[in-house]
Amino acid sequence: MSSGRAIAHPNIAIAKYWGKKAISGNIPAVPSLSVTLAGMTTTTDVELDAAAKIDTLVLDGEDARGDALTRAVALVDRVRMRAGSNVRARITSTNDFPTASGLASSASGFAALALAATRAYGLDLDAADVASLARESSASAARSFFSGFAALDTDGVAHQVAPPDQLDLRVLVCVTSEGPKAVGSTSGMIVTAKNSPFHATWLAIAPRIFDDVEAAIRTKDFERLGVAAEASAFAMHGAALAAGVSYFTDATHAVIGEVRALRNEGMLVFVTMDAGPHVKVLVLESDRAKCAERMESVPGVLRVIQTRPGEGAKIVEETAS
Ligand code: PMV
Q1: CB-side exposure of 164: number of CA atoms within 13 Å?
Q2: Are the C-beta atoms of residues 251 and 299 closer than 8 Å to each other?
Q3: What gap in Å lies between CA 254 and CA 279, rounded to an integer?
Q4: Is the domain of 305 the same as that of 231?
Q5: pLDDT digit string (tens) for 268-295?
Q6: Which ligand 1 atom is at minimum distance from the Cα of 16?
Q7: What atom in ligand 1 is closest to the CA of residue 104?
Q8: Within its chain, how far is the Cα of 185 from the centroid?
Q9: Do residue 156 and residue 180 come from a single domain?
């Protein structure tokens, strides 16, 4: 039977999206811009099984049930509909970094699954089209199809903004917990939109921060990018916190404090955080080694993954029946 294997990397939003314009189709309320990260990889196999009655998912070696299985099947259902097939699939996916902990495993997971599934079901779609299928499962996944810097607009369409070598940017992922995150991003967004007194302010300023980040990338201005990245992260988390949605732990604050200390010493270094307790530190290659050493010594930091702008999702193997 036919099968497809795809790999995808997580992406970290420099200009965040938080909030949906439409739940149906999973369309973001604000534009976002991210960097796709080399060095952290999801590998996903989709094998069609004509004899099977149901789809199965093995995630990091364990049979998945509940939400993880439901979301994967929903994506494969959309692919099946496009392909006019009702054949079931065996899905196997592994991450070489903690799953569901705010390290953007949903972005790389759904990007790799969408690509592997479209190939296994014999569809030959362009990247923007496959990105759209993945976006309906996780909006941030649409950005992982593109190398380097990628944007996602408020029509749900993703595109590349600049290639990986546009800036000498390095991202130090400070892992502060191996467990799953406290509040999933979609429910965090819904609660923020409903209860945060700052939600309207967030919706008003996020597009301006996006423009600033895009201009910083275009003009290769790392300091402008870092300042805007922190503005985006703190505005997003501020709006969420005002609705009682908090992702920060003591370790999160400790890393932010250490980055500020380095900045006071003259280093150009900035932070960003997604829907989890980890901190992603943005630094130039020239300061990477010193910065990583300092982050490794922060209490509560389990390890530091050193990454750089990387490649978009791609097929690594396919067989046709
Ligand atoms: O699309 P999701 O469900 O992976 O949510 C992403 C939310 C943030 O990571 C916090 C922001 C972003 O733009 O990636």
Answers
A1: 17
A2: yes
A3: 10
A4: yes
A5: 999 999 998 999 999 999 999 999 999 9
A6: 13
A7: 4
A8: 11
A9: no
Is the same domain home to 238 and 145? no
Listed residues 138, 162, 186: the one ending a domain? 162
Does ligand 1 have an atom closer than 6 angstroms to the CB of 140? yes
Distance of CA 17 from the midpoint of ligand 1 (Å): 6
Q: pLDDT tens-digit profile of 108-133? A: 999 999 999 999 999 999 998 999 99
Question: Considering the domain boundaries, does residue 261 fall inside one?
Answer: yes
Which protein residue's CA is at the shortest distance from atom 6 of ligand 1?
A: 140
For residue 320, being part of any structural domain is answered with no
Distance 270 CA to ligand 1 centre (A): 19
CB count, 10 Å around CB of 243?
19
Structural domain span for residue 87: 2-162
Q: How far is the CA of 30 from the centre of ligand 1 (A)?
A: 11
- What local confidence, expressed as pLDDT, does residue 98 receive? 65
Identify residue 91 by its one-letter amino acid code. I
Residue 103 in domain = yes
| Residue 246 resides in a domain | yes
**Atom 8 (ligand 1): residue with closest C-alpha?**
274
Helix (H/G/I), strand (E/B), else coil: 292: helix
Q: Does residue 143 sit in the same domain as residue 185?
A: no
Instruction: Verify whether ligand 1 is closer than 6 Å to residue 13 (CB atom).
Output: yes
CATH number, domain of 290, equals 3.30.70.890
Distance 140 CA to ligand 1 centre (A): 5
Q: Identify the sign of the CA torsion 229, 232, 234, 237.
A: negative
